[in-house]
Request: fold
Amino acid sequence: MSEASGSGTIVGLLLPLILGAGSVKAEPLTSVYSSADPANCTFISNENGGSLYRCPGPVGRDFMLNIEEHKVFLSFGTDPTQEQIWTQAMPGTHRIGDVIEWVMDGAVPVATIVRYYIDRSAAGLPEEQVLAVTRIDQGTACHVALIDARRNDNANVIAREAASVAAPEGTCRGMEAQTIGIMGVPELVK
Reply:
């Protein structure tokens, strides 16, 4: 049995306490998926050392993808540079997966789950994988939960539970992402 086995039940029960949110939404949220591959996006410009793209999301909800040499920034709101998520980059050199999971409340996207790959090759360590749960909040967005996808056997389930607890309630104002489950990325341990 791995050290992460069985942690999902405990984590699931503690999520409302960890995230400071109410209970899990009574109506189940659903998921849809979109591509985060720049080849499927519209190039906008080269700005601040990065390439900016507009990418299609569900129900006409576009998102911005800014790919710099060693980092990726996502934006789900109306003014990317004013969003809290724009300042919540993962540590070090990283990239994101090619798919974004959109958590939907009916036809309304309320959160996303994005897999980040963090390069540790300079330290002779394997690549890390972190799932970031992002609340989409009235034209802005912020990370609300971070889950270590290598150390938690059920990381996708934990991320969906975090989205169902944190996304529909509250606001991004002053929200700081919480690590949930086992976290082995030192820069993300709180």
Observations:
- The longest helix spans residues 7-19.
- Residues 7-179 form one domain.
